[in-house]
Amino acid sequence: MLRSLHDSLEPKLITLFRRQGYSWSDFSADAIAGLAVAIVALPLAMAIAIASNLPPERGLFTAIVAGFLISAHGGSRYQIGGPTAAFIVTVATVAMKHGYEGLVLATLMAGGILILMAFFRAGEMIKFIPYPVIVGFTSGIALLIAFSQIRDFFGLSITTVPPDFIDKLTIYVTHLHETNFIAILVALASIGIILLTKRYTPKIPGPIMVVIFSGIAVWALNLPVETIESRFGTIPSMLPTPTWPHITFEKLRLLLPDAITIATLAAIESLLSAVVADGMSGTRHKSNAELLGQGIGNIASAIFGGLPATGAIARTATNVKAGARTPVAGMMHALWLFLFMLLLSPLIVKVPLSALAAILMIVAWNMSEFKHVREIMQAPRSDRIVLILTFALTVLVDLNFAIQAGIALASILFINQMMKATQIRSVESEEDDPDSIHHKSIPEWVEVYEIQGPLFFGVAEKLVDTLSLFETPPKIFILRMRYVPLIDAAGLHALEVLHERLAQQQTRLILSGVNPQVRRFIAQSHIDEKIGVENIVDHIDKALIRSNELLHL
């Protein structure tokens, strides 16, 4: 067991080095791919930090520190870690409520939760989050990201943007008369550059072209728009000294819900990103090792002055397309970013904020999942309800609550569907079934019923209610369970209640076709002792023989 746990947590980097080694050509390919990713990551890291109402260097610190460690310790060959747009709303809300130190502590706690998830092998559990929930909160986050960029896109002079959607809308409307049309032109031109670059020169990242051209235009033409420098001043050219936040039990208790939100979002997005990379490259990631790498990366990012980090889908896809071979490419991307910060920080601060807002508008559009939303809207009604609810709660209430409510509603609707699918009925004759009652001789005073589907808490009461169907109680009640794949505690309790009520009517219960797994649970709960071990059989023929024996006692 310990060996299996060790294998599931071993970093992909170590696994690859041990199995195939590492050559100079591998390093060259990884270094070039890392440079391509760093060029894409540079403007995004700053834009995400600014959109979270924090200085741009926080995003760079995250991309460098967390990006390096996530690749070094994670479970994906191509994963690129760093700040992502999905965290903007959560980060901005936590920082506004608890200050940056509160955000650091929440990120540390989230890192610890991710490590615990890895050790408890929760990587495989993420796949059970319903698809409409994922699409719903992703689309909701996309809308919130786009909405959060209106201030810089329109050049509005708003000091602080509130985190809530309705409050944002109110403050935008009251400041709309301050619109800076030069800022809008810069933003629209930036969107145009990204779209044209994607169409005509797809190998050149559009965001870096926006950063270069918009910075030059604002500097050369002295355009009256806000820049990174005018709002935040200079950007440090070195990583800060690691610091540990002041920790109290009260702070831990207060920030736990936010830490759970960060950890959940980091786990979901990183594993989705790893799945995307697997689909592009034909590889297979190690989900628990990925969670471990995410936990280590988030803890380090927090103590180095960064933000929450996770796998970045767009940057990971860029890494695959750029020809990366191992996780070293992700580590090199972090080192390239460090060099950019070291050498280019005086130039980076000249970038206009409206250009960064335009970049995030494109990111939000790509996140919006319009195609998948249309697909789900053609799906069964229950999926549509889950999608709409999760989307609405993400936008209007809170991401954590939206995910919880979406999963809860999806689970309830699924249980309802399973209840309808599980049938408890009098056995009908089926000509093509060799074990059909049609081919058997049923003694008088014997009733045969059959359960088709799992016997769980959703249908347990339905089983007990079958007794109300009898006008005259039979002497023998055979319950066929050949199509019952599993049973839970409520199902076991229902069997016990069924036996007790039948006993009150002087009716004996026989269970037929019980599979070994279900029989084991019945034995563990000692219900077999009450029903009688001899009254639990694996075939209808044995049940009928037993019923004849009981009738002649």
Any descriptors?
553 residues, mainly alpha, Transcription Regulator spoIIAA, 24 helices, 5% strand
Describe the structure.
The chain is mainly alpha-helical and 553 residues long. The protein folds into two domains: 2-17 and 24-154 and 167-224 and 240-410, no CATH class; 424-551, 2-Layer Sandwich (Transcription Regulator spoIIAA), CATH 3.30.750.24. Helix content is 65%, strand content 5%. The chain has helices at 2-9, 12-20, 24-51, 56-73, 88-119, 131-148, 150-154, 165-174, 181-200, 206-221, 228-232, 249-281, 287-303, 313-321, 328-348, 353-367, 370-377, 381-396, 399-421, 457-465, 489-504, 516-524, 527-531, 540-551, and strands spanning 81-82, 310-311, 423-426, 446-452, 476-483, 508-512. The strands form two sheets. It has a four-stranded mixed beta sheet. The relative contact order is 0.15. The mean pLDDT is 88.
What distance lies between the first and last C-alpha atoms, to the nearest angstrom? 52 Å
Overall shape: it is: elongated
Strand order, biggest sheet? 3-4-5-6
Tally of individual helices = 24
Mean pLDDT: 88
